[in-house]
Amino acid sequence: MEKINLQEKLSLFQEHWSPKIVGELNGQHVKLAKLKGEFIWHHHELEDELFWVLKGTLKMEFRDKTVLIHENEFLIVPRGVEHRPVAEEEVSVLLFEPASTLNTGNTQNEFTKDHLDRI
Amino acid sequence: MEKINLQEKLSLFQEHWSPKIVGELNGQHVKLAKLKGEFIWHHHELEDELFWVLKGTLKMEFRDKTVLIHENEFLIVPRGVEHRPVAEEEVSVLLFEPASTLNTGNTQNEFTKDHLDRI
What we know:
The structure is a homodimer. Chain A has one domain (6-98): Jelly Rolls, CATH 2.60.120. In chain A, strands 2, 3, 4, 5, 6, 7 and 8 form a seven-stranded antiparallel sheet that branches. The first copy, chain A, has one helix and eight strands; from the N terminus they run βαβββββββ. The radius of gyration of chain A is 13 Å and the shape is globular. Chain A starts with a strand and ends in a 21-residue tail after the last strand. Helix content of chain A is 4%, strand content 45%. By secondary structure, chain A is mostly beta strands. Chain A binds chain B through residues 1-7, 23-26, 28, 30, 47-50, 62, 67, 69-70, 72-78, 81, 96-98, and chain B through 1-7, 23-26, 28, 30, 47-50, 62, 67-70, 72-78, 81, 96-98.
């Protein structure tokens, strides 16, 4: 049972679109990720997903609107809702989501990470 | 589907030891709380609980050790583990835990909140 320091964990990796597991509780994972550029359109069949911006501004595109998420703001994307994260500059985010969540949801492509490291 | 600004939500209440629900996903609640003083010893039979310090320093007492949680740090308290949060100065925290979680866990007392407001 150790506390987690977010800045320390963020300093341990540089790669984009590669979430790292930093905590687990009640079948959910707490993950950190650095994002830059455009991700792919996808949705999650069974998982709601929380995006919390720690640094930078994340643009979350939906089919009918776009939401800008700034530092110290979070957005919950409900299951089934198509979305595409876009980071014009590098963004650091924390994710809360079920341990079963695949980063690219219903799609499989070069962004898909079948295995996530714990840091 | 609206983003949540943490500072804005924190400005909406002042009371201590009274968590407010600010998000829900996958059967879990995201809550904000302001803490000051000593809480009671308790544990949660079935729920792991995440404490994330947004402002101040939270002292989490366990039967065999004490952990100081500073800003931008979090600690996961596993189910079954007795703990007592202590805030010498006011602390703002975000909690992530199952919707079923009672704030005083296995105990019932003047701190118990059977109903939590959504803000």
